[in-house]
Amino acid sequence: MPAPRPLSSQACLPAPRRPAEAGLSLVEVLVTLSISAFAAVLIVATARPADPLRSDGEKLSRTLAQLEGRARISGKPTGLLLDETGYTGMVWAGGNWSALPRSRHALSRGVEIRSPLSPEPLETQMPQLVFDPLGHSAIDPVILRAQNREWPVTLPARTVAAP
Hints:
The protein has helices spanning 8-11, 26-46, 52-74; strands at residues 78-82, 86-93, 96-106, 111-114, 129-131, 142-146, 149-153.
């Protein structure tokens, strides 16, 4: 009896691989990882560093908005104490100003605040920027400076819903 002829669809299929040929070799895996690592190094090396003046300005703007919101919600005045190295959020409670927990922010190296600063210790100092709980605060822009550039920081614009 003659051997059965393979069907035409079976004739096109490659022969099954033996277990020794299955998968990737160690050399192939290492070459792939090396190429991926080289590409990652190129991407990181060409990335521009963050602008400390801009990032400090955006962080200060968010802090101002948070302090204004906290004053409105809590019904207590809040403020921002500025010094040479950064700023601290404060709240009026018990007849005096006290620092809010975890509200101290240091400025990046080379960035300074241009505003009147007081040499008094933190505990007895009044904040230079004060937020009224009724929302009637008029805050002048704070100017951050680095080298020969300046970044004015103001409160973000509020959206008022139509009646």
